[in-house]
Structure formats: structure tokens, C-alpha cells
Amino acid sequence: MPIPLILALLYPASFWAMTDYEPHSLANALNMAYRLADLKMYTPLGMSYHPGVPFYLMSWLALALTGYPLGSNDIGMFNALVDHIRTFQLTMIGLAGVVGAAGIHLFARSAQAVVPPAVTIAGLALWLFSLPATMFTYVSPGMESFALLINALFFAVLVKIAYQQEVDERVVILAGCVGAVAYLNKLSYLYIPMSLISAIIVKLSFDRTDRKRSATLVSLFVLSFVSAVLAAAVFIIGWRAFRDVLVFHKQVILGSGLYGKGDPSVVSGSVIWNNLMALPANRAYGIGIALLGGIGVGLGGIVTAFRKPGHLPVAVLSIGAAIAATLSAMAVLKHYNEHYTAAVSATLPVCVVAGYLLLQAWARRVEAAYS
After folding, report:
1. pTM of the full predicted structure?
2. How many CA atoms lie within 13 A of 23 on its CB side?
3. CA-CA distances (angstroms) from residue 88 to 23, 24, 73, 199, 345?
4. Rounded CA gap, 99 and 146, in Å?
5. Per-residue pLDDT tens for 171-180?
6. N or C: which end of the chain has fewer CB within 10 A?
7. Is 27 within 8 Å of 57 (Cβ atoms)?
């Protein structure tokens, strides 16, 4: 947790000269401070494109801890805040470190139920060192600062889905809410709800759950996801800003290049090629690891589901992990920016766990054949 803060103290950088996330965080914080002071839903420009809800709330918390929880009508507050902008910056970095530590703790706690500690450590090491942007996102906090925590929540729910004898309604509702939190962080994190619903469908299909119950559980997931998103749209983002979010997301999905401003096509071959060529220069090898590793783990999960029904939980977990890693890598290749890659590295620890479980499942078969 203190590593990002220590780095920020050892290598100080101007708040105004880092990335666009710094002024973005200040705008978020002031927007919420004035909302609370005036009891009005001022339009939050910081949430009008990427939802960025967790980042918005963390920005205001940093402002409150700096000593300015409520807005003021005079210019004195803004001038005082500018004078204490370094304190605000360090508070944001400290909070980002807390978010990262929470993600590590939650992932490790969930992993200890299914794999040895060495596998957990290997997964976290791959997350930390596979991409340069991973650590940078905690020194310059942004939406990607929540990547590991969101993926840890995803993993915790995925383990429950995979290893429960019968999928519980409460777990499905929780999965829908986790998917909503992921989407409310950023559009590219839609790989979380897509992976969760895929894992649920695989589990229900191979467990031979009756159609009525399967339809009920899938409907519960969709309802909880949509309800959580709409609740945030009304009470946090604001309905007008949320409409802008949806327009922006349509542009990103249907267009190529950064923010969908490239060729008027869903996928552009030239853009993908240019993005692939940029990976070695940025040492973004984690993208290739996630893409190829995700495909490998996914194929292993599918084969395990059909050939080894006694290891269905491993198959379900592997398929969920594979879809998350593959989709996250594909999303970054479609709209590449170096700091986006932190969302991909956060999927790797779950893939490491899934890969280990697959090896264990098939190793037992090999041992049995030679015993």
C-alpha cells in the first residue's frame, strides 16, 4: 500500500504536468463538493464520457481529507485548494494505494481456498511486472487504479459460482452488481459482466439445471446489473450526463481507433496492426500474455467441461477467466492507449489460478494412467 506514496515522495512531479487524470480528479472532487453544499445535481463532466464512478467518489474523498469536503461561494476556497494541491495529489495517491491493497487482499483471500500460496504470489507478480502501466496507475491515479480490485471482486464471485453445488440466487444477484460496478468504472470493463454471465450459463448447462430455473437466474443477473447501473445513473451520475455516456459508448463501440474517432467501422485492420506494433515499444507484453494465455485457458476449460465432468468447477472458473483476459486484451487493441493496459494486467492473476487448476485436474488423469 505505501509503495506508490513512497515513489511519489521520492520522485515528485507537478500535479499540473502529469496526465489528464490529475485535473480530472480535481474537477470530480469540486463537482461533488458543490453538489453537497448546494444540494443540486450539477452536471459532472468527469462522468459524462467514461462513467468513472469509483474514481469520482475517490476524488471527492481525497478533497474531504485535504480539508475541503463542501464547496464555497467565494473564490477563497479554490485559491486555498490550489495552495494545497500537493496535499490533494498525495492523498489521491495514498487512496489509490489503499484500493490496490484491498484488491491484493481480496484476491489472495479468495485464491487461498483453491490454490497454494505460491500460485497466488505468482499471479500477483505477473500482474505487477507484466506491464509498466500497472504501477504507474497508482502513482497517477485514475480509473485503472480500480482494475485489480474489480477483478478481485470478479474472482471472488466466480469462485462461488464455480464451486457451489447449486448456483444460489444471492450469488447471481451479487454477480450482477459486481458487473455493474465494473461497467460504471469504464466501458472496457464490460468484460467482467460478460465473463460472469458466461460462467453462469456454462455452470447451469453442464449441471443440467432445468430451463425454468436457468432462465430465472439469468434474468436475475440481468435485472441486478441493469438496476445497479440505473441507480448510479439517477443518484450519482445524473440522468442527462448518463445519456451523454451512452452516446459516447455507442461511438466507441461502433467506431475504431481511440474513442471511436478512427475509421467508421467496428474494427479497423490498420488500427489493430498499428496498435500491435506499438506493444514492443511500450513493453506491453502483458497484452500478448493475456490474449494467448486467455485463449489457452479457455480451450482447456472447454475440453475439461466435456471430458472431465468431475472437474466442472475448474472448467467454469477457467472459462470465466479466459473470457475476461481475452476480451480485455481485444478491447485495448481496438482502442489502444498505454495506460489502458492496466485493465489487462489485472486479469492475469485469475488466469494463473485457472491454469494451475487445469494442470492439476489433468495431472491426476496422467498419474492414474501410469499407476
Report:
1. 0.91
2. 6
3. 11, 13, 20, 41, 27
4. 7
5. 999 999 999 9
6. C
7. no
